Batch of 2 targets.
Target 1
Amino acid sequence: MNNYVYYPGCSLKGNSKQYEESILPVFKEIGLPLEELEDWNCCGATAYFSVDETMAAAICGRNLSLAEKQGKDIIAPCAGCYLTLKKANKVLQGDNPKARKINQALEKAGCAYHGGVQVKHPLEVLVRDIGLDAIKEKVRFKLKGLKVACYYGCQLVRPFTDFDDPDYPTTLDNLMAAIGAQPVPYSAKTRCCGGSLTGTIEEVGKRLNFILLKEAKRKGADAIVTICPLCQFNLEILQDKMAKAYGEDVTLPVLYFSQLMGLAFGLAKEDLGFNRSIIDLKPFWQKIGNGGSR
Amino acid sequence: MDIHRQVKYEEELDQAFLETIKAMSGAEDLDRCIQCGTCSSSCPMSVYMDYPPRKIISMVKNGFKEEALRSFTIWLCSSCYTCQVRCPAKIEITEVMYALKRLAIEEKVYPQKLAIPVLDKEMSQLIKTYGRNSELWLILRLYLKSRNPLGLLKMAPLGLKLMKTGRMSLKREAIKNKKQLQTLLNSLKEAV
């Protein structure tokens, strides 16, 4: 029995299956097996808040209510879901006409919410609740010599700054060091990947992600480690086009922190979604000595 | 050569604009902007914008409603919140951008050819109807609505890569209790 329920969001069921495939076994390994929130609905991301604020907060309220009925807090691995649910939570917990209106609608629909749920990102749970010492004890295979650029993106560290520093956070760096990898000083760690702009205005997405990859490469990273599906997708998907457009090869694997944790815990690499990488991982496996394979 | 006046006189400005945006965004401290430009220099998108964030804030403060609502800037804001956490006057700039987006959609003055507002509207529509977003369906609707079949064609190699790695599903996702979601959204509409 634990106090958390897992909110996958659309990405972990879609283009970032490898995130789900690695975060679930990792949490099982640390003794917090996660169950999926029954009949969750999409968080609406930045899109719904751009169209209608009350409706955007209301649909998030349904998810919060579902978790509250189970008496559990939410773990949201997607930084977009994490922020959207957290933001809506703050709206719904408010004491003002807007909050009352939405809460009344939730009650009418049979999903009343009383403000009793916390929304957390798995990184926060791992580092704050479980602790690095407990994680270190689980490590069976140190990722020695693997240089990683820890990329936090935006929505995990901003606008809510209670979890880590909004400009130069260190939580993920500390976690990666705890499992034996070597974080490089990555000055672009919270510079934006462009979010959904990669899908709408490719030129913008391509340039922003080129900047992020180039900086990681310059610091000697073997891989970029991410905590958000949209960041992972954006960083990975346009790499082949960048070489053509900007005359510089910035090819780098873009992996989830949970995939590396799984490897370090000695789980089989075949079970951690590495086969879903669009970037060739051969240099990566050479670097870490093909660790974790059966 | 056509000569156009480049400035507006006071009577041509919308005096209520500041209060409208304050109420919509919750950015109570909007008046306190000192035009320092920290937002513009922090913004990763400002190089693509028609007006940098500092100018948008000034437009809001001074009633340039038309200019602010029709700008590309508000749609290029990717919600990275860098300006917001750095603003020395503690103005929730990202929330101001959201409020401007909502008002531009409400008043139908958003750039029709730009894919970003189309994406926002289509995604909201998908969620409203099915409770879930389906990535492939969203992309199809985006290109259909923004009338850009060539763009869809350009996306094909990417789609193939995602298919090959099992990262794109053809299934249309939906929640079981769609009725609850409809009741929720309908009672919100009625509550106005």
Note: Chain B has a mean pLDDT of 93.
Target 2
Amino acid sequence: MDKTINQKAWLLVLPVFLVVAFSAILPLMTVVNYSMQDTFGNNQFFWNGVGWFKELLDPSSDLGSRFFASLWRNLFFSAVILLIEVPLGIVVALSMPRQGWSVAACLVIMALPLLIPWNVVGTIWQIFGRPDIGLLGYTLNHIGINYNYVSNEFDAWATVIVMDVWHWTSLVALLCYAGLKSIPDAYYQAAQIDGASRWAVFTAIQLPKMKRVLLIAVLLRFMDSFMIYTEPFVVTGGGPGNSTTFISIELVKIALGQFDLGKAAALSLVYNLIIIIVCWVFYTVMTNAGVERRAAKGAA
Amino acid sequence: MHSIPGRRLILSLFLVFLLLPIYWLVNMSLKTNGEIVSTMNLWPHQPTLENYIRIFTDESWYTGYINSLKYVVINTVISIAVALPAAYAFSRYRFLGDKHLFFWLLSNRMAPAAVYALPFFNLYSAIGLFDTPWAVALAHCIFNVPLAVWILEGFVSGVPREIDETAFLDGYSFPRFFVKILMPLIASGIGVAAFFCFMFSWVELLLARTLTSVDAKPISAVMTRTVSAAGMDWGLLAAAGVLTIIPGALVIWFVRNYIARGFALGRV
């Protein structure tokens, strides 16, 4: 490691620390405070200890059953979109042209969905999927598939998943493309001389080089899909029934809809804890990968 | 060797898949409501700009765009300004708690907005910033500052240390070195970081909607409310949607050569 130890560096980090602490620690303290209390309106609060947490983690209670149902739903959703978006993103990245004006054109088109406000993404798919006025819904119904995302659970899920694939596959593809671009031509020439097959080039050269960016992609996609709110909310409103109510939607329902501050706060803390744990696992894996890479460089 | 068989077909299908829903939105925005509801036309048969004219002449609509741009710009400026020195510190020095601090920052990037919606509402009401662009700009710092630090750290690490040392030997003070030498060297990195701050602040709805009520209402909130109140005015909704895509598309065009690297957070 060629970094020098210098405690004065804290002065440079201080502004970031203050800004983020103001936005993160203060509100989190409020949440902790609420999670221990019960309110009956009129700003009167009563001490409730760990009552809310007990209820939250007990699947037989109302709050607990809602929490676990939305948690499993959300994990299932994250798993499905990762299974689709990561392989698809890699394939798209491998299909990108190498040079010329078409590269810029592809990049711009692919980045487009990422820059659309999330509620507009919802609106786009709402309009696109409606059986009466949407191209997708209209076509599907005309070729004999009975499709209606408002009333059918399966259709609602399919719409939300296809929408997420539409919205975020580009991110995975762009990351992989950046990884691929960093591979020097010499590697490919060496592979050609060795007579390596297309598949061997992929597994021995391209995949290892993409490992780091793929980790970032999986981390970002998992986190963002785990806290997804706006897009499914606009399209399905969490329905039909509760079939597409993910954790964030449930949380906002409890916090801003019913104003059940104690329950919402307890749910928030558990939710945050899950995210921090997953984040920590990814971070450790990523930094270890970085250390290995540096060690390999040092040895060479 | 780089490419795979059938790549043109795969890529074309993917791009069509991306563009089709957007085309449909544009198509809708150019139709009258009568045409939308009555027939299924692949392109507008009686194209009209009426929906757009309504947005540009109705103050409650176009101020939504101005409000959104206000907090996005404030947020981008704050995020970059505080993130630059921190990125330098993380890239060059080891100090007490640096790894923990970095992880803590990262974990904030991942914190769900839904968790913070209500506490932010309390906090910004208490300090009198509720319903101002500042509230939203500061709230968005929670995920944009860590991101900016992360991206810029990658770019600063790409600058050889010898440059710092030479500058200090030449008698540059730290602030002068920072502004005159380092910042021009990582100009593309600053551009990329600004792009990402812009992007994530522009697309966020939940916090922006929770922290504003009347004066600073962002366009995304105007869209959800006006539309549900007036029944479903599909043409107007589509036109408003198209207009929210345009700023993003413009920004992408300027950074198109750095997009890929930026998405890898400067770490390729």
Note: The first strand of chain A starts at residue 4 and ends at 5.
